[in-house]
Structures are given as structure tokens and as C-alpha cells.
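QUALITY CONTROL LOG
STEP: pairwise intake check
CHECKER ROLE: data steward
CRITERIA: each record must contain a sequence immediately followed by its C-alpha cells, with no blank fields

ENTRY 1 OF 2
RESULT FIELD BELOW
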Amino acid sequence: MDVRTTGSTLLLPLSGMSGLPLDQVNFVACQFLAFIAACLLRLYWHPSQTSPWVRHVIAASLGTFLIIFCFGWYATHCFVQVLLCYAVLTFASVGNIHKFIFVLSMGYLMLIQVSRIYVFGYGLFSTDFSGPLMLMTQKVTSLAFQIHDGLAKEEADLTVDQQRFAMRARPSFLEFLSYTLNFMSILAGPCTCYKDYIAFIEGRNFWIKETKFDGKCLPGRIEPSPLPVVWKKLLIVASCSVLFVTLSKTFPAARNADAEFIASASLSTRLCYLLVSVQAVRPKYYFAWTLADAINNAAGFGFNGYDENGRSRWDLISNLNIWKIETATDIKSIVNNWNIQTSLWLKRVCYTRVPVYPTAATFALSAAWHGVYPGYYMTFSCGVLFIHASRRARHFFRQLHLGWTPPQLSRVIVSWLVTQFTVAYVVLPFLLLAVEPSLRFYSSLNFFLHIMVVLTLLLLPRTFGHIGSTHSQLPVTKATILGKHKDSVTGPSPVDTRPCPIHNDDELCTHSNQDVEVCASSHNGSAWPQG
């Protein structure tokens, strides 16, 4: 039995009975305590009965207790980061506040990540204290950029997304503590936007405009019950916990790089094991993120309006779509539906703000945010190449007229296998952490996917005319198209000549900054690299 933890040992007997590490038991117990508190917050400390000040105090106090219970004195790092960042938010100029906060929070996080290697080596606790620190880094940097947008920029210079979240005033100390330390997201996220959180605390998150569905008129302010969605998510949590405990022990990912396994197993066996073992890791993330989503929903946070049938949606801060991930037939679908809130954070603080090489910069930030283990950088550096190669190949075959179309079922099965295997191949170093086992695995397969990717990038052209046509198409710029575009409300939209952050870099896109959110909704998520 593994009893390593810096947190409370109160649940050590339960750890012994379950056979799970104590830090995992503490994490699960704290999350279910947070779930109970979330229900009480909605039922007994409802905004109609309780002042925002009281709700802020409850959220921050309980979050502080949970993080201390789980991580003991290591929770001090989170408090230090919070206090330092609030000091900068209070005294720094709005013109540079986002830069100072970004450097401070990312620098402090990376310092802690480096210390983890030298203090703990590669034998980490399965739930280590850097997790909450990573979430706080997301929150404070998001808030700093939103303050900068609201106080230092003209509204005409902001995208629709930035206009929505721009802050016109700095938060109070209590509001900042509640936002960064609230019990609903302190342990497993997700990262939420400050304005959405404050609207929830003050009870304004259910205010919607009057909308009609099939002749039915919904009132301007209603509060649908989250219970059906919460129970559904709890059922998913229970299923994922069983799958994780069963599969992770049966198919450990580290075995892919085991020298004896490489020498004794056939190539087909190893490829099948690679696919299964990486798939077996996913239920751990499904469990943590779905439970976190259920906690927020139980408190009344996460309402996202209504669908076309008039049913309430509770996916405002959801972090994943399990069905779309497991049935994905292209890498983009997995990226769009995995760790969605981190993807949005990367987009808002990096992708849409970096003037050159935004994709590479975003992958670099994602890797640095995750930590300093070499395996992380191997995965994310490969990810840049694999995504560009997949775009190039997809564009090529779309233009190629083969004269026949394979059966739909065959195409789906083959696409699914190729996609899932490619993701497993790229993600394995992220799980192995170290360079040596990762290189041992790749060299045993002769780096064959890496070679295919490089050949794809070298041999296939970046842009295409219609293959088989006697006249190749001249490239059309987005500026040419957007110059003719008129917004029905605001007039001409500001032109963004960089690739649309939703569409692939090589695709022609007619979306301006003002249209990015519309484009995002049409793609069912975001297309930015993430962890």
C-alpha cells in the first residue's frame, strides 16, 4: 500500500481497505465533499437568499480547506502565487498587467515543476500539488488579459470573445480569492472565466433573453434544475472509476517501452497493446473532469442556455465530450473535445495574440504549462508536425478524384483505427515522461510514423488547385473576401489576415475576428492545441 502523501492521513484506513494510494483517496473524498457542499450552496445559500459576500466566503474558505487536506504544507505554494498575483493586479499598470502576471505565474509554476523533478524524481504522487497551481495559473493569466482588454484597449480593437470577457474594473480581494480558490474547481478545474463565475455567485447566470422554441415562449429569467444532468454525469463518473481501476493495472502504458516486451512480442501484438494501453489511461481523466463538471453543475454553475428543442444545456464549462473523443475519425475531433477549457485558455492568452507562428507558440506554452518532463515536450513537438501533416494529407486527398468511393463503414473503421493509433503513438512519451523509454519505444518501431510525417510535409504541396484541372486556382486572401463582408449590426468586421484559429492553417477561411465565435460553434468546440 502506498501511503506517500503530504496531506492528511485521516483516511489511511480507507486507503488500506480499498488498496488505493492515500493521495487518491484524499482527492476523491474531497471531491465528493465538494459535491455535497455544491448542493448545499444551491439549495441553502442560494443567491436569492444569501448575499454575494457570504457566497464568496463559503467558496473560498471551503476551497482552502480542501487543498490543505489534500496537500498539506505544499498548498502554501498556491497561496503564495495567489497573493503575489493579486499584488500585481492591484498595483501594475493596465498596459503591462497581463505581461507581468503571465511571467510571474508561469515562472513560479515552472520553478515548482523543476523542483518536482529534483525533489521527487520521476516517482510522483498520482495527484500532486502542482495540479491546483496549474489551474490557478490559468485563472490569473486569463483575468489579467481580460483586465488589460477592458481597461487598456479600445473596444473596436477587441474580438467578440475579448469584448464579452473584458473587465472594466479590477476585482476586490475577496472576489479574487473566491475565483481562484473556490471549492468547486480548486482540485480538478475547470478554468472558468471571471465574468461567468461572478455572474454565478450573484445569481445572474440564469438571466437570458426571451426565446421561442416551437411556439413555446421561455421567460426572461428561469432557473432549470441541474439534477438530471448531474445524475447522468455521476453515472459516467462511477463507470469511469471502475474502468480506470481495472484497465490501468491490466494494461500499464510503461510496458510499451519495456525491453523484454519489445524483444518477445510480435509487431502486431505490440501495436494492439499500444492502442489499448493508451486508451486505458483516458478513464482517469474522464473521471476527474466529469466529476468536477458535476460539482459545478450541482452548485448551479455551468448553465449555457437552451438547445434548439428548448432543453437546458449545462456545458458552459464542460472539459470534454467522451463520445466524440472515443468515436473520433480524425485528430482534430479529439483535439476539439479533449480538455476544452484548457484549449480555450491557450487560445485566449496565446493563439489569438501571438503575431507569428501561433500554432508552434501555443504548443510550446501547453508543454511548459504541463511541466518540464522531457516526455511532454516530445509529445507536443511531435504534435505540431503531425497536425500540419494531417492537414496537408487531408487537403490532398480531398482534391484527388479517385473515381471510386470506398464503403462508408470501411472508411469509418479505417479512419478510426488510424486516428486512435496515431494519437496513441504521439501521446505515449507524455505518459512515460522520460526520454530513454520514449526513444526505446520509437526506435523499436523505426520511427516509422515520424518518417511518414516528414515525407508528407516534404512531398505534398502546401496549397492546391483542383487536381486534374488545366487551370490552377490563384490563392485568394481572406482580406479580399472580408473586405466585402458586412456585419448586420456593427458594419464591416475588422480583418484578421492570420489563419482562422478554428479552421486549419492551410484552409481558406472567410471568418474575421468578429466571426470567430460563430465559427467555433459551427465546429462544436475549439481547435487549439492543449494538454
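ENTRY 2 OF 2
RESULT FIELD BELOW
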Amino acid sequence: VQGKVTAGSLDVHPTEKALVVHYEVEASILGEGGGHVLGERKEGQKIIRVKSLSPSTDVGALARKVVEECKLIPSSRLPQVEQLLYYLQNRKSSPVEGKKKRTAKPRELTPFEGMELNEEASITRVDEYIELLYEGIPEKIRGSALILQLARNPDNLEELLHNEAALGALARVLREDWKQSVELATIIIYIFFCFSSFAQFHGVVSHYKIGALCMSVVEHELKRHDVWREELRKKNKSAPENGSLRRDQDKAVRKYHGLLSKQEQLLRVSLYLLLNLAEDTRTELKMRNKNIVGLLVKVLERDDEELLVLVVSFLKKLSIFLENKNDMAEVDTVERLARLVPCDHEDLLNLTLRLLLNLSFDSGLRAKMVEVGLLPKLTALLGNSNNRQVAMRILYHISIDDRFKGMFVYTDCIPQLMQMLYEHGEEETEAELISICINLAANKRNAQLMCEGNGLKMLMKRALKMKDCLLMKMIRNISQHDGPTKSVFIDYVGDLAAEIRAEEEEEWVLECLGTLANLTIPDLDWELVLKEYNLVPYLKDRLKPGSAEDDLILEVVIMIGTVSMDDACAAMLAKSGIIPALIELLNAQQEDDEFVCQIVYVFYQMVFHQATRDVIIKDTQAPAYLIDLMHDKNAEIRKVCDNTLDIIAEYDEEWGRKIQSEKFRFHNNQWLEMVESRQADESEPYLYDNDNDNDRTDLFYSAGTHTHMLVISSCILNYQVYHNHLKSWYQQIIALVLMNSFFSMMYLKIHTRRDVSAAQSLFHCC
């Protein structure tokens, strides 16, 4: 056999500080005469990492060292190596590289304590190792350990796969003897773990039902651990005083730790095998049916960091499915994870945070995170550059819930977030950072903390300079709170008003306009603002249906409602013809309750002022629209309508009569419908003949009397509503006497004849 290696191209690694050397290996089998009989070519590449490369590194010296140590690079290519290293030295980290996700995963398994052998295994002696599996436990351990040596080399797996005798014997020994020897069980499961590391070998692991066996092993070992711990607790509780008993207790503790170490090795290899098999969702479902989540959560009580990394990785993989997430909620997973935050093991901390992030999509689990005290712990991690992004995403999910926004006040989260915003300068703000700030700004106390010092000044300056819509949304949330926070915005009213122009982006104008609309400050001269920045034409143009997005038009309506609190502003808007535009918009958006409510609120504000009140009552049909909306399904719309109509009725007699008439008509219809439905329910007793009726006096005095009295009560109540139309006390007395006589006559007829039609006539006459 003759081999030849040919150097290929040189290049830089796309993300790491490394050189990539491409090469080609040609293997030839020579014949007896020295000629080529059979040949094969294979391409490969070698990565040469240069982690020591820094701006101060001598590139020439490093290039010479690389060429000397790498036999694949000929000395003639030294200038090219030097040029590539110079490029790596000056290459800036891409945003993707700088912020790439940490993909922490369990460390590869290494030979456990007690598995090392002095002899080296050979693939040609597998049959000898199989024979050892039929001897005693020590021989079985030795034979399986030798096979494990072979299995740890991926090149041997294919040959072992075809040796059914070896695999069958290993599976049999594991099934029969795993309870007798932890070491034997660990070694055999490790062998099958080597197969499970490759998806194409999962079939053989499933064929011998190793996954189900591993589930049984894990469950059994966890129960054994509970027994050990209980025995140790009892010995510690006895509190021995003499030296011999104390020595026995120390011996028991050492024995417990020795057993625990071996058990954790077995658990680790078993769970790692199950994790590999769980790549198949069908296999994962079988594991769930056997309570894999409960077993994993129980292992979270352990202190071995490598085992915990594996368990948390497994739980993180399972947590992406709803059913598994629900299982985790039932077994106090969050409580067990809380003790791991923070921890010194970087990978374990990162995996724990990512698992918590997956769980934080559930509102109940978010509440549990706050309950177990994770909020201050996560806040403390904002200063950790490796885990800041994940911690911030969890905090963002917590900040969505209004119940927990106020709890951020008792941490140093808000000062840290404000500092991060300040440090960003003119760079684009991270989505997670600004999102959590927007949520927290919706809480009054949080907003006050954000405005402390020069907080609001910094936010306004940055938002106006960068035209940052999300930052302005945060400011808009701050502006909605009553109290001292709102008055701080007076200095920025002009800056905000100057941004409300047709030339600006709608999204930007929406946030600026929404911020202004929140500023219900009594001392603010809105008339001066509207005139100086010529806002009235813009507001009027944007009221036209379809002139802009609905969100922007709605903010325009809210803005008009805010400025209408000022008498002069209300008059200016009324003269500009905004009221007819509002009515037109009301017709177009009558199905949108938010639009209707805000437009009615504008009318409510305007009827307070004499100038605009007369315009609304005499020159527009606004009162007629308000009467139509008086009985709307939406309670808020009804409330604003009633308040507005009460003011209109007080100042205008004609509209007052119309409003009162409509209220009476609506009330009367309600009573008619109620009585008719009640009569339909109680009509059955009147189907009896007269003779039976005379014997059944209970029909009249129970159901019948109740119905007639209900009708008459309705008439009296209707009179109480209607008598407001009769302005003269004389007219009221006459009407009352006439109605009393009429009631008496009709009731006598009903009482003597039990005539339901008379009762109906009485009600309709009323």
C-alpha cells in the first residue's frame, strides 16, 4: 500500500480565528511488479486554530511557526499564510458571531473510575470477550470493559453491529445482572451509548429494548438513593457521643458517598443514552408515558455538576412540547431549578436559564418563578455578558404580566436597564432591552424610577435624535401616568408637537401624537401649541376615513379629546369643521367600539364649553347620533353617552324632550317584552273550564294575581317615568287621578273575571 498526501487550498475559517488547510489523500495498492492495482482518493481538511492571535501579535513569526508545525503547508506558501493571518488579525467580529447563541451541551462521556484495564482490546478477539460474559460477575465486568474499549472507537461500531452474538450477550447480561453490579450495568449501558451517538445505529439499541431497560435502571436507582439517604438521616439523628459510634457514623458517610459516586456514573450514562434516543419524537413520547420528566426532575436534587448539565439539557429538549411542559409544572421543576441560579458552572447556568426561558411562556410557571425568588437573581445576571440576553428574555416574559410589573421596583433592574440604554449611544437598541423597558414603563412606580435624575431627558434626546419608534413607545407609556411624572413632560411638548407632520413616518408620528394625547395637564396652553405648530389642519386631514392607518386616526381623535378640555381650543376646533368630520368618521367606524367611545368622549368634552355646546346642539346632528348610541352594547359607550346627553338635555329643552321620550320608549319596550314572556310562561292555568276554575282558587291567588299585579306595577312605574313630561303640577294631579280611576276599573274586571286580555289592554293603554 502506498499513500500520498497532496496539499490543497488555504483559507480562513468563517467564524473562528483559524486557518483551514484543504488536502487530498491518495492510497494505492501496488502489485507484484510495483504497478498500481487499486487506488482511492479522499479529500480532507485540517483546521489550525490561532487563539493567541491579537492586534499586538507578530504575524510574520506566527506564520513561520504555523508552517513549521503543519506538514501539510509547504514553506513556499509562507507569504500566503502570513497574508491570511494578517486578515484574521484585522477582521472584525460580525454581529452574528458576537451574539451567537451559546450551545452548551453535555460533555462527552469518558471512561469512569474502575473501568480502566491494563490490557488493550483487539477487534479480532471479540469472541474471547463474549465468552467472559458467561462467567462470574468479575469476568463479565472484564469482558464488557474490553468490548467497551472497542466500542469507543467509531471505526469498530460497524463490525460490532454485525456481531449479533456479542450484542445479544451484552443485552442478556444487562437484563439479568444490572441489579447485582453497578459497575457491570454502567459498562454495558456505556457500550450501547456508543451506538446511540449515531442516528443510524438507533435501530439496534431499540431492538434490544435498551431504552426501556435504562428507564427501569434510573427509576430503581433513584429509589435506592432515597433509602440510603433515609438510613443516613437516622444515623445522624442518633447523635452518637462516644468515639466508636462516631467512627461508625463517619464510615457510613464515606460509604454513602462512594455508592453515590458510582450511582451517579450509572445515571449519567443511562440518561445520556436516553437523550440520544429521544431525537426520535415517537421514542420521546414512549419515555413521557413512563414518566421521564418526573425522574429527571428528581435527579435535579443531586450536586454532581456534569450530571446536572445532562439532566437540564434533557429537560430543555423536552420542554418544547406542551405535554412535557405541563408535566414539569406538576412536579415543581421551577423550585428545583431556582437553586441552580446562579452557579459557578457556566454551562450549567446557561442551560438552566434556557430551560427557564422555555418554561416562562407559561403564565403559571412565570408566577412560580417570581414566587421562588428568581426575579432578583435574574436581575443580578444582567451584568453577566454571557447570560445577559437569556436573563433579559425571561425578565421580559415576567414583565408582560401586570401582576409582576410592580415587583421590579424592589430590584435594581430598572437602574441597570437605564444604564444599558445610556451605554448604547447611537447604536440600535437590542430588541429584548427596549421591549422589557416598554412593558415596565406601563407601571406608575417604574415610570417614576425611569424619570429620576436625567432619565427622561436622556430618553427624549435619544428618541428624537434617532427617530426611535420603540423608544418613543416607552416614553408614551411613561406619559400615561398621573402625578408628578406627567408634569415633567411640559418641557418637551414643543419637541413632540414639532414631529407631528405629514412628511414623517406614520409609526413615528403615532407614538409622538400618543404621548402628547396623554398629557392632560391643566396648566398647559393647548391653544398656543395648536397655533404655533399648525396642528389643526393636520388633525382635520387625518380624520378622513382611510387617510391613514386606523391606529393613527384613533390617536388623532384621542388628541382632539385631550385639547378639547381647553375652552379656547374647543372653540377653535369647532370653527375649523372638525365636528362634522368626527361624525363622518363615526359613521365609517361605527363597528369599532374604541373609535365610537373616543369620538363620543370628544363630544362630551365639547358640550362643557358654551361656544362648542351651541355648535354641537344647533349646527350638527351629534345629539341624534348620541341618542342612537344611548343603548349600545358596550357599557363604557353607554356611560359616556348618558353623561353627554344629560348635559345637552339640561341646556336645550327640545333635545331634552327627545332624549326623555327615547328613554321612555326604550324602557316601555323592555317592560312589554318582559310581561309578554311572563304571560306566555303562565298561560297554562287559564286553559281549565269554569267549573274547575271555581274549585282551583290557588290558580288565581298565586300565579294569576302575581301576573296582574306585575302588569299594574309596570304601569305605575311607567307613569313615574312619563310624568316628567308634564311640567304643570295641575296636569300631573289630573293625570294621576285619571290613571288611578282607570287602574281601579281594570283591576276590578281582572279580579272578578280573571281576564288576562284586560290586563294586557291595561298595560298597552299605559
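INTAKE CHECK: passed for both entries
DESCRIPTIVE NOTE, ENTRY 2: The longest strand covers residues 36-49.
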